[in-house]
Specification:
about 525 residues; 8-stranded parallel beta sheet; 6-stranded antiparallel beta sheet; about 30% strand; globular; binds alpha-D-galactopyranose
Length: about 525
């Protein structure tokens, strides 16, 4: 692949999209992610609700899905958050504290989290801001905010979805802000997913409270993919484009791609819409029963590159031609532009996308890459005509260069290291976490944040697109007991110089117990 000198790409981005870049480099202090560095691109993962609803959810299902995220290639494409939605995961004991429901989750909720972390995935849990969750199967956080956020931290959650059922008399901004404060007090960095279905207009205030907020009602009833509801959610979410950015996303709900009742064309267009809207990509289908076509759609790295673009700009409809919609104004990290031509109508429609539609001059000579056929045409001047069949979509990337690099996606072999030191003599133990970057460019070395406990040190080395965080643990001076640290490492995307989502992992040390087998 021909490489464009970095300074030229940098200049193009600066000149063309000065405002967005300026904003993203200096996020206003009220954006919560400025502090924790989480979800600087839209979260990707899997949640059970769309396919399963409440009762089939249990530890066995979540573990099978976690395993399938890996075996299907979805983890490699960036899907990392996984865990139960509303099910029967926990109850509140007489002491007011949450306890795991061991009938459905025999390893306990911490045990399930360890299973997920050990496999290089991140742990998502669910709760509610009201007195109970929606079906009243579980207690909500109302008046227990601090103890419940402490429980989520103890279970090692990395992501919490907070629903809005049974909240009579509550104010969304106040309730979710209290939960944020409780989560900060619990001390664990957690992606906060607000789920008030647009109630309280979270796009106006929630950037300082959470990392994503639902903008709409549910996209479907469990097990029943609903194309027209998906189109309704798309229309509502599109209007809110100005509220989205790194660390603060509009969420039009989980994916229905791959659920029964949708055609291949609808699956592809739906995924394209979520990509250009920079919407969270939380798959909602049964991953254990995916067709080859569904896997190919969900793991299309060129489409995912649009969604995971480091500038984090939400595309929008710039023009309609007949029934077809032209979505654009989504500049990407390398100076290229994402464009979607979507035909929600019933007849094939030829559509002309002009260079002025994407903010360029008519005389520009531009390359066009089709992200579903993986073919590039051009350079051409003026524009391009595409004919889109009913319900289908052409997802395009348009650029002065024909390089079309993809931004980094991080794939880790594990998010958890656990050390056991037997006996009373000082021991040195080592363990490594390996990160691989998928994407066109190598990354600079990850920088480990200072402030590690004295018993832990971390050294980072690089081998091309792979980096190893070598952890050394020393028991010198430590009394018998359990020790825990959360390591944070930071990086930047080297072309746009945008900060990347912080990389966190857990290290446990148990001192003084007999050697484990
Ligand atoms: C709400 C949410 C859904 C799901 C259900 C669980 O309806 O919007 O995504 O979490 O609650 O009951």
């Amino acid at each position: 692949m021909r490489r464009i000198p970095l300074f030229i790409v940098g200049m193009c981005i600066t000149l063309l999209f000065q405002d967005q870049v300026k904003w993203a480099q200096n996020p206003p202090p009220q954006v919560r992610a400025a502090e924790d560095g989480l979800a600087l691109t839209p979260p990707m993962g899997w949640y059970p609700w769309n396919e399963f609803g409440q009762d089939p959810q249990n530890e066995k299902l979540i573990k099978e899905i976690a395993d399938t995220l890996i075996s299907s290639g979805m983890k490699g494409a960036g899907y990392v958050y996984v865990g139960p939605d509303e099910g029967r995961c926990f109850s509140r004991g007489a002491d007011g504290k949450l306890t795991s429901n061991l009938a459905g989750y025999p390893s306990g909720l911490r045990g399930l989290g360890d299973y997920i972390h050990r496999r290089g995935l991140k742990y998502a849990l669910y709760t509610d801001a009201g007195t109970h969750t929606c079906s009243k199967a579980m207690p909500g956080t109302k008046d227990h905010e601090f103890e419940d956020m402490a429980a989520f931290a103890a279970w090692r959650a990395d992501y919490v979805k907070i629903d809005w059922c049974n909240t009579e008399g509550q104010n969304p901004a106040q309730s979710y802000t209290k939960l944020r404060d409780a989560q900060r007090a619990a001390g664990r960095p957690i992606v906060f997913s607000l789920c008030s279905w647009g109630e309280g207009e979270p796009w106006k205030w929630a950037a300082s409270v959470g990392h994503l907020w639902r903008t709409t009602g549910d996209i479907c009833a469990p097990g029943k993919a609903d194309w027209s509801a998906a189109m309704g959610n798309t229309a509502a979410n599109e209007k809110l484009f100005a509220a989205a950015g790194p660390g603060h996303w509009n969420d039009p709900d989980m994916l229905i791609t791959g659920m029964a009742g949708l055609s291949e064309t609808q699956n592809r267009s739906f995924f394209s819409l979520w990509c250009i809207m920079a919407a969270p990509l939380m798959a909602g289908n049964d991953l254990r029963k995916m067709t080859a076509s569904t896997i190919q759609i969900l793991t299309n790295r060129e489409a995912i590159a649009i969604n995971q673009d480091p500038l984090g700009i939400q595309g929008r409809i710039v023009r309609r031609e007949g029934q077809a919609e032209i979505w654009a104004r989504k500049p990407l990290f390398d100076g290229s532009q994402a464009v979607l031509v979507f035909n929600p109508g019933t007849t094939p429609t030829p559509v002309r996308v002009t260079w002025p539609d994407i903010g360029s001059v008519e005389s520009a000579a531009l390359y066009v890459r089709n992200l579903w056929t993986h073919q590039t045409t051009g350079p051409q001047r003026g524009g391009i005509t595409v004919t889109v069949p009913p319900s289908d979509a052409a997802l395009l990337r348009i650029s002065k260069s024909n390089a079309f690099p993809t931004p980094p996606i991080i794939v880790a072999d594990s998010y958890w290291l656990s050390f056991h030191a037997a006996g009373s003599e000082t021991q040195k133990l080592t363990g490594a976490i390996t990160l691989k970057t998928t994407g066109s460019d190598e990354l600079p070395l990850w920088k480990v944040r200072s402030g590690l406990p004295p018993w832990l040190s971390v050294a980072v080395t690089k081998h091309g697109k792979s980096q190893t965080l070598a952890n050394t643990v020393s028991t010198a001076g430590l009394a018998q007991g359990l020790y825990h640290a959360v390591v944070r490492a930071d990086n930047i995307e080297p072309v746009s110089r945008q900060p990347m989502s912080a990389f966190y992992y857990d290290v446990d040390l148990e001192v003084g117990e007999a050697e484990r087998k």
